[in-house]
Amino acid sequence: VQLQASGGGLVQAGGSLRLSCAASGRTFSRLAMGWFRQAPGKEREFVAAISGSGRSPYYADSVKGRFAISRDNAKNTVYLQMNSLSPEDTAVYYCAANEGYSTYYTLQEYDYWGQGTLVTVSS
């Protein structure tokens, strides 16, 4: 599975960004997808996840109500809509894939990773 994340950039606090992750190499609807992030000097952490069918989205408490994960199986793409961004959201964001049927939220459960896209939120 190959994953290509895009959509990062510089945004002011309170602004919005939408990240995209295009997948190839497997039937996309059979991949559970997740977003993680890693801030400078910190460990990579879970952000959001969604099952292959698009049901059962799951969010970290820190982004609940501000971020939304979705997917378009016809386009082999998963999205992360990020609203009300704060400087604490500054990080490299990674998409990841799991060939299971559920929703997964730990790093160890994901088999495939994209290259990451940098999100910088200025105050």
Describe this structure in words.
The chain is mostly beta strands and 123 residues long. Helix content is 0%, strand content 49%. It contains no helices and 11 strands. It has strands at 2-6, 9-12, 17-24, 32-38, 45-50, 58-59, 67-72, 77-82, 91-98, 112-113, 117-122. Strands 2, 4, 5, 6, 9, 10 and 11 form a 7-stranded mixed beta sheet that branches. A hairpin with a 4-residue loop joins strand 7 (67-72) and strand 8. It is globular and about 40 Å long.
Number of helices: 0
Indicate the mean pLDDT: 96
Taking the alpha carbons of the first and last residues, their distance comes to 37 Å
Secondary structure: number of strands:
11
What form results from the Cα inertia axes?
Answer: globular
Flag low-confidence runs.
none
Task: Supply the helix-strand structural class.
Answer: mainly beta
Quick rundown:
This protein is 0% helix and 49% strand. The protein is an all-beta fold and 123 residues long.
Q: What labels describe this entry?
A:
single chain, 123 residues
